[in-house]
Each structure stands twice: as C-alpha cells, then as structure tokens.
Amino acid sequence: MATMPSRGAASRSVLPLRSRDPHVRDVIGSHAASLDSTAGDAIMGDAIWHRSTPGHIVRAESWGTDSKGWNEWRAYLARRAAKVSIATLFPGKGPSLAWGMPACTATTLSARLPSTRDLVVALDRVERGKSWPLSGSPLELALAWMADAARRQAPLFGLEGLAWARALPALAAELPGDAWWQLLDSLLRVADTADALQDGLARQWLGAELPFSLAYVLPELKPARKLARRGGQELATALRTLVAADGMPSAKQLDLVPALLATWARSRELSCHLKKAGWNAEAEERYTHFVRQMLRLARRDGTMPFATAPADRTRRDLLAAACAGLDRSERALATALIGDRDLPRNLPDKSLPAPAANNETAGVTVLRPNWSRGRERVVLARSGATTRMELSSGRDVLWSGTWTCEVRRNGELLVPETDAEWDEVCWTSTDDADYLELEIALPQGIRVQRQIVLAREDRFLFLADAVLGTEPAALEYRGAFPLGADISFDPSTETREGYLVGGKPRGLVFPLALREWRAEPSAGALESPTEQSLELRAARQEARCLYAPLFIDLHPRRMFRPATWRQLTVAENRQTLSPDLAVGYRVQVRNEHWFVYRSLGPRGNRTLLGHNLVSEFLVARFKTDGEIEPLVEIE
C-alpha cells in the first residue's frame, strides 16, 4: 500500500477532482485554475490516520472522490457527525461563533461569497444537520472561499475558517472527496502559519481556536490531533500578552473584549475535551481575571464601554459559557447581567470582588461604588494623548467617547507632542470614593492635571482639569463630553447648572468655577453646542493657572431639591490668595453640603471656611456639627 507524502509536500501531481454529477463537474472546472495544485496529494495517505480510525478506512488504497476509501470515510463521518458537533457544547440555539461577532461581519466582502455572518450561520446549520440556506451550494462556496486570495488577508477570514472547520464532518455529505480534502488541507495550512499574523483577534481564531476545533471534530487524523498542543500554547501566550496579570485588557483593545471573551470561552471548553491541550492552572487563573474585569467593564445590558451597537441576543449565551465553572461570585454577577436583575440578597458582599479597578499599564480604570446594576459607573481608557470616558447611570449611558481638552495660551492652541501621553499621578479606592489623577505635558511649559472622583455613598461625580503654568498669560480652556445617543442636556433658565436627561433625569451638573446666576457675568459657560455634546468653557486673563471643575449630582432622590454652589475665599497668613494659587468651592443640595479645595501653586497652611488645610486636594462632606469629613484627601 502506497503512502502519500506528508502534508505540505509537493512531489506528486494532484489527484484530479472528479464526480459523476455534471453540475459538480462544471463547478469544479470553473474553479480548477484557482485551486491549490498540491492539496489532494499532500493530505491523503495512510500515514495521516490515528490508531483510533477504523481499519477498513485505513486499509483503503484511495480516499479521493468516488473511491471506496472516500465512501467508507464519508459514511463513518455521517454516523458520528452529531457526536463531535461543537455546536452541542454551548448554550443557545444560534451559532456560538456569533458571540461577540464584530458588526462588520454583516458586510459582503466579495461578490462571489456571502457576508461573514451569513456564511457562519449557514455552516452552523450544516453542522447541526439542517438544510443549507444560501443560494450558492456548499461546493461552490467552498471552492470560491479557498480560491479568494484577498479574502485570506481580511481579519474575518479566521472566523470563516472556524465555521468551515466545525462543519467538516457534516460537509462530507455535501462535497466531493477531493474538494473536502482540499478544504481540510487549506485549514491545516492556515493553522500552521497563524503565528505569523499580527492581528491579535485573527491570531486567536486561527492559532488557538482553529487547532482546537480541528482536533475535536477530526481526532482520527494525526495532523488535526497534533494541533491541540499548538492551540494550547498559542492561547496561553495570548492570555499573557493581550491582557495584564489582573486580567485587564489594554485601552486599545476594549473594542475586542467581546470577541476575545467569545473565542477564549469556546477554546477553554474545547480544551476540556482534548488531551494535551495545554490549558493549565496559570491559563485558568488569567482567564478568570479577564472575565472578572469584563464584568466590571460591562454596561447594564452586557455591552462593553464605548460600544455603539446595541446588545444582541447572543450576549446571554456568551456570559453563561464564559463563566461556566468559575467561582460563585463570577457566576452570580454574570447571571445578574444575563437576567437584568440585582444580585441575590444572600450573596455576602465579602465574597464579591472589588467593584472598582485600575491598571496603569493597560490604561484602563473602572470607578463604581458597588456591583448594583442600577448604580453609576465610570470607565476611563487612555492611550497616548487621548482619554475616552464613559459615564452610565441606571439604564442610560450619559456620555461616552473622547473627553476633549483644548487649552489656549495667549490665543495659541497648545497641541501635545506626538509622543505625549496621559500619565497616572494617583489612584486610590476607599470605602468613601474612587479617585484617579492624570497628567499630560503641553507646549510652553503648560501641564494639565485631570481629576476624577466618584463618591460611593454620597453619589456624585467630580471632574476637573487643572491647567498649570509658570508665567502669567491669557488662558482659555474647553472641555467637551460626547453625550449618549438618547441623552440631552437641559440647562436651567436662571442659573448655570443643568440636567442630564435620558429615560429620566440622571444627573444635575454644577460648573463650580462659574457664577451661579446667569444675570452675573462669568468668564465661561456650560452648554450643549450640539445635541450630542456637553461643553465646559473657562478663561482667565494674566493668570498662571486655571481650574475647570464640574460637580455632577447622581442621586435620584436629590435631583429636584433646592441646590446652590459658591466659590470660596482661600486665605494664607490672613491674606486672600489669588485663584492662581488655590481655589475652594461649596456645594449644597437641600441639607447636604460638600466642600472642594485645590492648591494650584506651592502648598501652604491655608484657611477656608474656618478650616486649616495643608493638603493639595480635598473633597469632603460637612457633618451636622459643622466639621468636615474627608472623602478624598491628597497631601
């Protein structure tokens, strides 16, 4: 019995594609020039069979179209197709490959082929033993897919490859033998060369999940079976390089989190059914951390921050599969997201991970008071000189996108250098509040320090940009926030505060550095110049520094109660200080009072409302006895 060359060799001529069906012959003939001329010879041969393969298949002399060996192999695959169907491993009726699927998968990339989404759905139906839904036959699309060189350069090629691989056992009933073997050989070659890919997500599809899939659906073939170890190595490498040790994805990859979670959840499940798959305790720990960070980042509807597409039905199945086998706390958090309900009351708070998190290297921070689905949540993602921020409360995303910071000095716009980036100055998370401070350098010796405070029990968000210089000049500042799709800013008619309104009023915004009453002149404004943006402007003449703060009351019960704010006088050695050196503010909503102080110059022993301060920054609440209780204090 002759042995064919090992896969990849090209020493023999290809076996001709042949079939008794005239239509199939025509289809094959029309694509023959674009097919790999060595594929059939390279993959077929008795050396590829694992010892678990039935002997009558191994002993066949040929396995090409219309041969006895192919008919035996096809009949064998038909009998056990349902047993190795990957579709049965995961919850839900739809294709698990649709979990976290990028929105662009609905776009048709080629005139000869359907969109990635349509192709994945069609092949999932074949895998499940259902009818083929597309106009082109499986043979036509398989040959066109293999021949489309441009398609191989598209990132979504990997997702399509997974769909073809999972359907291989069922496709044996739809394709001629030589076409089936060439499809398999094409997928094996792709898996072999996946480590050269630069796209992180495509590399996971083709370098980790595709090897697992081929090893699972075709364990009788040695080349497929041997891929399991390679897939495990690629997956372990990705978990070490694409996410931080605490599981946090980088700011640049937040958009990929659903797709990464989907491929890792599927790969993790497949690895449980494969020997020597390489999924070890280290990979499980890193994966668990990643799932936990995903749950922190997720909106109430399960979508990721900054996502523009609405939640789809597959998120429930994805979260259920991703959290399978994890600790009770992760499963409970995922169940709450899936069911859009609060956590079980009998789940102790101590068993839950901390709701807030920060990773300086990844450039991602999550500020949230607890795990309640209705509470406010702030996500910041910084990359280079860009900071994206998302604020959500209840069912509404109040704003989401780039937090713009424009500074002009003597009329000149100060643009950061190309290599400038926001550096983390301070991060702290306590029982009272989460606090993050960032800094970036601008030309002409100007620095901007950005401060974010989310108070837990007091339920307010404090935001501020401090423009810090060394020489007096005319300073202008503009900060802008892109409002959520269904959010509007409703300004007060007599005063300068305004409401952020979604399904209902969600936040009351106070521009602390501006005069409260519109009848009073003020060098700045808080307004919505377009329907989808909120903008704070401030200016000072002959000033070294400028402070632009916003206080946003997020407590629904305080939303319509009497409120006011004031700029306070800061003194040192009985002398009133210029706003260049220090500023102070008081905010009152009915009988609740808060106090903000910021030093903009050298620190000193200052007096404010009768309180001595030596801190650089202080946010505090007034107690009923007139004393202050710090929520955040930076010395």
Break the fold down into its secondary structure elements and pairings.
Elements: H1 22-31, H2 39-43, H3 55-58, H4 68-80, H5 116-127, H6 138-147, H7 149-152, H8 157-171, H9 177-192, H10 200-217, H11 222-225, H12 227-241, H13 257-271, H14 281-297, H15 314-322, H16 328-339, E1 357-359, E2 364-367, E3 377-383, E4 386-393, E5 396-402, E6 404-409, E7 412-413, E8 423-429, E9 433-442, E10 446-455, E11 460-482, E12 488-491, E13 498-501, E14 505-510, E15 524-527, E16 533-553, E17 563-568, E18 571-572, E19 575-576, E20 582-589, E21 592-599, E22 606-608, E23 611-613, E24 617-622, E25 628-634
Description:
- The chain has 635 residues and is of the alpha+beta class.
- The chain is 28% helix and 27% strand.
- It contains 16 helices and 25 strands.
- The strands form 5 sheets. Strands 6, 7, 8, 9, 10, 11, 12, 13, 14, 15 and 16 form an 11-stranded antiparallel beta sheet that branches.
- It is elongated and about 100 Å long.
- The N and C termini lie far apart (83 Å).
- The model is unreliable at 1-42 (pLDDT under 50).
